[in-house]
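JOB MANIFEST
job_type = single_chain_structure
chain_count = 1
residues = 143
[input]
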Amino acid sequence: MSATTATQTVSIEEYGLLTAHDLYRLLPNMILTGTCRDVWDEILYNIEEGYASPVTRAEIAERLNIDETYVSHATKPLTEAGLIFRRGRESVWYVNPQLAFKGSYEDWQALLADLPDDIPEVQAPFYEVRPPRRRDQPRLRAV
């Protein structure tokens, strides 16, 4: 099986991005904005071997055609939820390896068995049913 992009063909087997099904399924329950989901997807798309994603805010902003300020605002809830994190003053984003990992299943399991101390806990609500989406309030009209 392979996926074709405008520039190259990559086999799914070669790509090897693994996700934790149960934790990944909680994303809709987090009520993330569309921009947060788009930024999450860009960080996840750029993950390298392991769980590092060296994509910059400027690169994300350019790909999504938004201002870097919006990228910064979108990364805050992702960080607070424990989905992504940084180490010190590095510009590299790290995807929480409890959620996703690029590499072999054996390497992922070895990492999870001896998880580094700086990996945050995933702060996900454990609802059985997703809460309703936020709806705009109708404007009041003078009568």
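[summary]
The first helix runs from residue 12 to 15.
The first strand starts at residue 2 and ends at 4.
exit_status = 0
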